[in-house]
Fold this sequence. Notes:
- 19% of the residues lie in helices and 22% in strands.
- With 190 residues, the protein is of the alpha+beta class.
- The chain has a single domain, classed as Peptide deformylase (Peptide Deformylase).
- The strands form 2 sheets. The protein has a 5-stranded antiparallel β-sheet.
- A hairpin with a 5-residue loop joins β6 (126-132) and β7.
- It is globular.
- The mean pLDDT is 95.
- The structure holds ligand UDB and zinc ion (ZN).
- Zinc ion is lined by residues 110-112, 153, 157.
- Zinc ion binds next to α3.
Amino acid sequence: MLTMDDIIREGHPTLRKTAEPVDLPPSQEDQNTLNDMMQFLVHSQDPETAEKYSLRPGVGLAAPQINVSKRMLVMRTTDQNDEIIEYAFFNPKIISHSAETTYLDSGEGCLSVDRNVEGIVPRYARIKIEAYDADGNKVVKRLRGFLSIVFQHELDHLNGIMFYDRIEGDDPYKKPLPPGEIIKVNNDDG
Ligand SMILES: CC(C)(C)[C@H](NC(=O)Nc1cc(F)cc(F)c1)C(=O)N(CC(=O)NO)CC1CCCC1
Ligand SMILES: [Zn+2]
């Protein structure tokens, strides 16, 4: 089973690489890896197992975080109706998104980051995604809310992006403008 020892931490070069697409239909090895990743989330969300193995309660995990530079990610969380939602995807991508952005008031953390980083992480509020499930079947889904945030955080890991890359350096708590706001541009040769 995967434990925190298998999760690489910031500074490890794999976290800054762009992960390679997975050949489809997926190999037995890639299917096993995706399953191991989902089991990590299941174990991390079970209080007894999490305590026994000192697991942080994960809601998402991307393959580069276990030093597998392949385009695979898993998510396990509850939706608006408090139902458990499990997504295990090969070659996920965002095919369209809202202009509107959203963010977690508490900011974000990461299983690969052993420190608190303050600040707003702007994410698209609603996204339409395309991916291939554990059996290699194409899925198209629309995500919003927390599910949308988790997916975007995990997808960033496939492109070598860490959540704090998206925090505005000068003003970490700067709230993103709602779409349609007039943005004043200084025409400095005017
Ligand atoms: C790093 C950790 C803090 C364990 C984080 N969990 C988390 O954010 N849980 C959470 C947040 C809520 F807003 C409400 C709630 F019920 C539970 C997490 O698993 N990840 C996954 C990760 O590091 N993937 O690479 C970080 C999250 C930050 C935003 C989305 C994923
Ligand atoms: Zn992360």
